[in-house]
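Re: the multi-chain job from yesterday

Posting the exact lines I submitted so nobody has to dig through the queue logs.
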Amino acid sequence: MGNYIPATAEERQAMLATLGLRSVDELFASVPAEVRVRSLNLPDGLSEMEVSRKIGDLAAKNIRFRSVFRGAGAYRHYIPAVVKTVTSREEFVTAYTPYQAEISQGVLQSIFEYQTQICELTGMDVSNASVYDGAVAAAEAALMCLERRRHGVLVAGSADPQTIAVIQTYCESRSVPVTVLPTKNGAVDPADLTAALSDETACVYVQSPNYYGVLEDMDALTAAAHEAGARMVMSANPISLGLLKTPGEYGADIAVGEGQPLGLPLSFGGPYLGFMACKKELMRRLPGRIVGQTEDHEGRRCFVLTLQAREQHIRREKASSNICSNEALCAMTASVYLAAMGPQGLRRAAENSAAHAHYLAAELAKIPGFALRHQGREFFHEFLTDCPMDPERLCAALAERGILGGLPVEGGLLWCCTELCGKKDMDELITAIREVCAQ
Amino acid sequence: MKLLFERSRPGRRECLLPPCDVPAAAFSSSALRASAPRLPEISEIDLGRHYTELASQTHGVNKGFYPLGSCTMKYNPRINEEMAALPGFTDIHPLQPVETAQGCLEVLYEAERLLCEITGMDGMTFQPAAGAHGEYTGLLLIRRYHQSRNDAARTKIIVPDSAHGTNPASASMAGFTVVSVPSNADGGVDIEALRKAVGPDAAGLMLTNPNTLGLFDPNILEITRIVHEAGGLCYYDGANLNAVMGQARPGDMGFDCVHLNLHKTFSTPHGGGGPGSGPAGCKAFLEPFLPSPRVRKENGRYSLYDPERSLGRVRSFYGNFLVVVRALTYILTLGREGIPEASAMAVLNANYLMKKLAGHYDMAYDALCMHEFVMTLEKLKNETGVSAMDVAKSLLDYGIHPPTMYFPLIVHEALMVEPTETESPETLDAAADAFLAILEKAKTDAAYLHGAPHRCPIGRPDEVRAARVPVLRWNFDSENDK
Amino acid sequence: MSHTPADLRYAASHEWIKNEDGLSVIGLTDFAQSSLGDIVFIDLPQVGDPVTVGESFADVESVKAVSGVFSPVSGTVAAVNDALLDNPALLNEKPYEAWLIKVSDVSEVGDLLDDAAYDAVCKSEEA
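And the result, structure tokens for all chains:
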């Protein structure tokens, strides 16, 4: 019903007359008759009011939880109001990739600011303008490290399983062997890494805090990788970097991660934001768009897409990555979030998340059967516990109380707390669990 | 314009989060970063003004005409944004139990069903986050198919020389070697060259149809038959689907798999470079290889499952879900009549604008075009010194985003114009007037055009300097920077 | 019209070569640099790396293009012109002074052209 076409019937006829045609069908003369669509099995078009109700009804079929204690790659943090208003501006939302710098300084400067913030967060020298998500960032980073004589990739088994799966997909199609390292007590044992390294290892991928929330022994793992001449790709939760040691400080060569916690809502998995940053030596291997500072002919500071000779539109089949569109508006969202929070705000988000998680772990441990799995390990804002009953059944009972419980993982539950999970919410959760367990 | 970092003042902050209500977590000192990240410290009012200023220096399709060829910059309806912002979607965790996310799964299921009908495919995944990602996924389907038949010899993907750069790059990433075939004099696939290129080593053909010259290949059925008879599969690059949606379906043209760009054809905004969405669709025989997980419907309930011989994952979760919400809103709005009407009007608008310019500017091909057309400014450049770049930059002074420049590679001094269906005749007339005024200026004052734009916030940036001496982040130590 | 010194030999893939102190010195021709435009980056091999006739040993990048540089000889890299890494513009400014690599232990030499024959190649590519 709606179609957003301004031209009236009379105007269309006049335009056709200009072309010496009578009907629009004549415009499709080059399409063979055999493939012309006779009738399309689609519903009739709707007015805006009708479509608004229909989609609204779909949204209403989902259940929004009052309290969310589940993370595992997607995190519900507080999103400042200013983030949403800034990033919904039509100029930003409806622009294409900023090919024409003269009328795209807003987008270009925001990416330059984002790149700077990501470098600051990760302790790296160079950031790109974003990739699709954290998992793809990890896979692209692994491919960046390949050398003629170094063709193998080692992946920590404690990393997010979806990320491992994406790395495997990307590497399999390039015939790159991927070895998943075993975990001991929720983390990689540096001795196991040393044993797996060879002079054919291109890189080691480690996530810290890892899938279980545990902080890996990054110093030892990085030293082992470098000892063998391999590069270290470290993935980190960006909120944690408001507080915890950076990939740069650990000596990693490439830092990647999922940027969703930086002001992006859960959104059933997307759009999210893959961030990628690296040491200067790897700058020209970094995939994706990169914005650089320069001057116009009058000497005014301005920003442009640069180092484009890396990219697919110039290198075609020789390009190391095919990425073209990225997640620019999500990168801007992260940038506004980081600017709104500032260093103190980000640190508070990290501290409060960690404090809540540690409080919850301690309270859960007081309930029989909810022991912390990885004893003696430091963790950030996620942790795995045992569960004395079917975890799915416990979560179903919690869901009835408006609580999204931990994710059932390896027979236990993987819990997550952010700054949004306050003491009151946690105490309510503990009470609910005691009730369910008592039944 | 000042950078965020130049607006920062130490100690300036907002009260966004409460103090912690439980004891702090104790971390060993070796786990902590040595110093805080140098994020801006800025008041909310300055933050708002900063981005208002940036927005004033950003051209979007909702601000002005954007005839960027092969990018389908049509209007991005506000209702799409409103639907995508519903808390019933934005607040849903991707790993919450499927019984509590039935609405999200229904969105994915319905969008898949409708887009399969539009493309003539049987199954589709929304996991790819952009067009190039969809290409990669589609090529992995082809790879898995040949592997499943133990046909290891099929290592080559055939790509016409007019293709987007992503095609050969995606084929390389998917582990194929690329064979380029030339275009014929009419801009279509050279049939004889294609026959020679397909053999027992051909995994398949990647084709954009209509192609990047804006021409629908009239030999399409013969092309796909030649590839199939040689044992290869046919891949449809959906970048240009806006010309034929509702008019002709890739599935009926003989294609086995496709990718779409929801951020082009289906009106979802491009966000200054993303997020997009590049769903990959396929015929039934390729469905078992689609990425995990897929959505199914049984007895009115939606659930997720892993296809038996899935190629794995190309991204976490289910792709850029909110982009799919926008596209579904759009498809339901247009419906059975609106979809073909949009493509017809996209083609009419392109031909109308081309007609107004033909006779003044040289067209690369003298034929009716589909949704876009390509001009060649080679003669203009030889006669006046004014290049495609000069004309493009001059358009900026008229508030028009320039066409795609210097693409496709097989046309010299190319400008590729795609007006889309959502532009009115008066917008097209005004654009034609601008093009003609620039042409007049070229004959009298070429130097003025070499210096264009003259009325933008900045002039042409020094790209050589940017690439030779890369400055890719703010340098906190150089306060004297301009 | 680009400049083609008579005292050098050329490969049809736009490299010049000369012998100097028993080494083969290889660079990029004036025609090549002017077709590429402003060169912004070059990626050179390391001393000791092998080079092979007709195979790419370096990539040169301009703002809008990238091109491989192909070796006219087979042998071992004996020296690389590090100055180019910091200042690739030398390739545009002085193409016949800005050598890329010097090759020792030359075991094979590809098809080389004199200046007139190379000019003919350039002319045919311009058309």
